[in-house]
Amino acid sequence: MAEVTQLIHDYLRHNKKFPHVFCPGCGHGIILGSLIRSVHALQLPKDDVVIVAGIGCSGRMAVYVDFNTVHTTHGRALTFATGIKMANPKLKVICVMGDGDALSIGGNHLIHAARRNIGVTALILNNYIYGMTGGQCSPATPFGDNSMTTPHGSLEQPFDTVDLVTAAGANYVARGTSFHARMLDGLIMDAIMHPGFSVVEALSPCPTQYGRKNKFKGTVSMYEWLKKNTVKLENRKEDDTRIPIGVFRNDNRPGLEERYASLKQRIMHKGQPEPKEQVSPKAEAEPIVEGVAEKPVDAPKEQK
């Protein structure tokens, strides 16, 4: 308990920004705790960590933590994070987004950050819904599930975040849940220290908006659902329909900022080409076309 209290005092702006906005039972608080424990375990100086967040329930994380933080506009968190990383590659840049922030209005930035393989950690908190704005359907809302804008069930297939960023080229791709908090600690630590673009999707219950609209009996039942309907990747059978959790990709390609720095060094240290020997115009005799056959003949000599 003493350790938890110390972490609260060391890493949270508890004197200014609390109480928080998270509803009772929201998984976001657990994920915030996991993020703090991960940074603490890695012994990263707070001045070397930047938290960038967008809009929505997850966006408030940037307000609560005592790091360098940027609370940005909706969907643009990754653009800010990219600029910060390119300007100062030594920083550990962690971009916190919700499923709507990352997959809808910010979806174009997500796939291109993965394609570029920029050295940023994207922590995507997926609660299957737009929680802060009233419970609208998001790109992650499961097919057939209810929301404010789909009261009879969503007719659209959701994005699979893991498949999306893997196909786009992210270096490190993982999925965890707020129920598996200790496992999530390890995934976040690996992502922070990994080169290139790292993505951790964290499934997070929203009892207020998603839970009530989809007939969950309460917060406990939502966490029980996560326990029952997820399976660690190494234990998954071929016909298993449960949601896989774990590490899906673990590559070590250099990030964009590393490639840019290497290119800059090559250009700065590249030797200048040797100047070509200048030839006097009088030393060369240009042919003159003459006659029917247009046969070149030597140019007349210069008269003295």
TrEMBL record:
Residues 56-201 form the Thiamine pyrophosphate enzyme TPP-binding domain. Residues 267-304 are annotated as: Disordered. Keywords: Oxidoreductase. It holds the Pfam family TPP_enzyme_C. The keyword Oxidoreductase applies. One of its GO terms (molecular function) is thiamine pyrophosphate binding. Gene3D superfamilies: 3.40.50.970. InterPro entries: 2-oxoacid:Fd_oxidoreductase, THDP-binding, TPP_enzyme_TPP-bd. This is 2-oxoglutarate ferredoxin oxidoreductase subunit beta. Residues 271-285, 292-304 have a biased composition (Basic and acidic residues). It comes from Desulfovibrio subterraneus. GO terms for biological process: cellular respiration; small molecule metabolic process. PANTHER family: 2-OXOGLUTARATE OXIDOREDUCTASE SUBUNIT KORB-RELATED, 2-OXOGLUTARATE SYNTHASE SUBUNIT KORB.
